[in-house]
Design brief:
- The protein is built from five helices and eleven strands, in the order αββββαβααβββαβββ.
- With about 190 residues, the chain is of the alpha+beta class.
- The protein binds flavin mononucleotide (FMN).
Length: about 190
């Protein structure tokens, strides 16, 4: 048998509140919302895919955020996928509140009407996923809204956008290398 060098790590106790630094890094997204004559944007890193079809996404939106109220009342949002070109805007959007400013004009972003929801798409983002709340039973306990993506708009190129992934403590990972090297190890029926 071929000898293969497997990693061997020395480990130490680690504070559980920082476990997120290893598990968080899905791409950060910008959640746009609208209620009555108001629109808003927030930055979000805490979300998870929950189902293929319908496409369900669980999103943790703090009740302290202005967006929380707009989403709760309208039961809609758009999940917008920014690339590294918008990294500074994503941080500034996450460090300000729509209670105080209009984030679209403040950060030079263009609201575009969607097809299925009233919340605006952010034109400068690589992709826009129009969402409707499908389950709000986790909102009171975890501030988690379960959304269904009812319409998706995705840029035709590049194939792999340079997305930004938050690692905590002000540090980002920028998506990099892609490989199909392990594809042959998947059972065809297990290729998601
Ligand atoms: C990188 C990053 C990730 C964030 N992730 C979340 C998140 O998952 N959930 C959340 O409620 N707030 C998150 N925030 C904080 C909100 O974006 C922030 O509170 C925002 O200012 C809320 O705006 P609003 O009051 O206009 O809704 C994040 C901020 C940053 C910078």
């Amino acid at each position: 048998m071929l000898e293969r060098l497997m990693p061997h790590y020395t480990k130490q106790d680690f504070p559980t509140h920082n476990v997120r630094r290893f598990l968080e890094p899905g791409p950060i997204v910008l959640v746009s919302s609208a209620y009555r004559d108001e629109t808003n944007i927030m930055t979000m890193g805490w979300y998870m895919m929950m189902e293929f079809e319908p496409a369900l996404i669980g999103c943790c939106i703090s009740a302290a955020n202005h967006s929380f109220e707009l989403v709760r009342k309208s039961r809609q949002c758009v999940i917008n996928l920014p690339t590294v070109d918008l990294a500074a805007e994503a941080v500034k959007i996450g460090n300000s509140s729509g209670r105080d400013i209009d984030k679209f004009s403040e950060f030079g972003l263009t609201p575009k009407p969607g097809g299925r929801v009233r919340a605006p798409l952010i034109a400068e983002c690589y992709a826009n996923f129009e969402c409707i709340v499908r389950d709000s039973s986790w909102v009171s306990k975890y501030n988690v809204f379960v959304f269904e993506v009812v319409k998706a708009h995705v840029a035709t190129s590049p194939k792999y956008p340079k997305t930004i992934h938050y690692r905590g403590d002000g540090e980002f990972m920028i998506s990099g290398e892609n490989t199909r090297r392990y594809r042959k190890l998947f059972r065809p029926d297990m290729l998601g």
